[in-house]
């Protein structure tokens, strides 16, 4: 493999590394979302069952207010516990998401540095191997010299 081909390969490897970092981040975020959604769905099902059980107890003994009050208190406490557990789980996932985002940004910055370095090296090698590069360089220098001279003359007259 030639030096230029190696450099180009390095560039594409760096691009792929950055892409893989993004894909991993998306997968982690997706897993978090699924985890929170599953817990929410389980909490909704549990709440519905508690409500049905409460209705069943009331229907069985409509005149027993003591039993109804105890069942209502139990259902309310269970609902509050589920709400607290869900809030804690969502908060934990949000914290983990923030930590993952910071880590991702650091990794992407490093991957982008590697990609930029590889791109500069590819451009440098291409410019060295391209016969038109020297012509373009000389043409650019030819335009810059008169422009610099004119700029100095303007500054001297001002």
TrEMBL record:
What superkingdom does the record give? Bacteria
What's the name of the protein?
A: Phasin domain-containing protein
Which species?
Answer: Tepidiforma flava
